[in-house]
Amino acid sequence: MALTNHHDGPDRSLPTWVTQDTSETAEEALKALQTYKKKDGEKVIVRFKAVGNAPIMKQNFFKITSSNRFQAVIQFLRKELGYKGNEPLHTYINLAFSPAPDDTVANLFKSFQTDNHLIVNYSTTAAWG
């Protein structure tokens, strides 16, 4: 027994969005990729402020790529201060909380920026427990 397709109704075509021109789709994909690349390169100004007996930096404003994780900011700060991995260094945003190392600079900036800067306070001892 062979199966046959009986078509008794009017011709049904796919909606126009399904049969979209592939060159138009490729163009939209390229635009999206370019937008993503641009965002990845955006920088935010991070201002470092010493707390307690932490050394004060001569230069305390830095432009940091917003797609970086906060861990990169901590590593950068350690390098600038000449701190080794075993030396204690505590970081806080706006003297309020210590962000997770996997938070992005962009998210922290969007949520907690002050005067268009992300303020990172740093201390050699836990400032708030």
From TrEMBL:
Top-rank lineage group of the source organism: Eukaryota
Pfam annotation, one family: APG12
UniProt keyword list: Autophagy, Isopeptide bond, Membrane, Protein transport, Transport, Ubl conjugation pathway
Gene3D superfamilies associated with the record: Phosphatidylinositol 3-kinase Catalytic Subunit, Chain A, domain 1
Location of this chain's protein in the cell: Preautophagosomal structure membrane
Transmembrane regions: none
Gene Ontology CC annotation, any one: autophagosome membrane
GO biological-process terms attached to the record: autophagosome assembly; autophagosome maturation; autophagy of mitochondrion; glycophagy; piecemeal microautophagy of the nucleus; protein transport
Topology class, membrane: Peripheral membrane protein
InterPro entries in the cross-refs: Atg12 (IPR007242), Ubiquitin-like_domsf (IPR029071)
Entry's Gene Ontology molecular function annotations: Atg8-family ligase activity
Transport as UniProt keyword: yes
General function of this protein: Ubiquitin-like protein involved in cytoplasm to vacuole transport (Cvt), autophagy vesicles formation, mitophagy, and nucleophagy. Conjugation with ATG5 through a ubiquitin-like conjugating system involving also ATG7 as an E1-like activating enzyme and ATG10 as an E2-like conjugating enzyme, is essential for its function. The ATG12-ATG5 conjugate functions as an E3-like enzyme which is required for lipidation of ATG8 and ATG8 association to the vesicle membranes.
Known partners and oligomeric status: Forms a conjugate with ATG5.
PANTHER family xref list: AUTOPHAGY PROTEIN 12 (PTHR13385), UBIQUITIN-LIKE PROTEIN ATG12 (PTHR13385:SF0)
Similarity comment: Belongs to the ATG12 family.
Name this polypeptide is given: Ubiquitin-like protein ATG12
Organism: Dendrothele bispora (strain CBS 962.96)
Lineage: Eukaryota, Fungi, Dikarya, Basidiomycota, Agaricomycotina
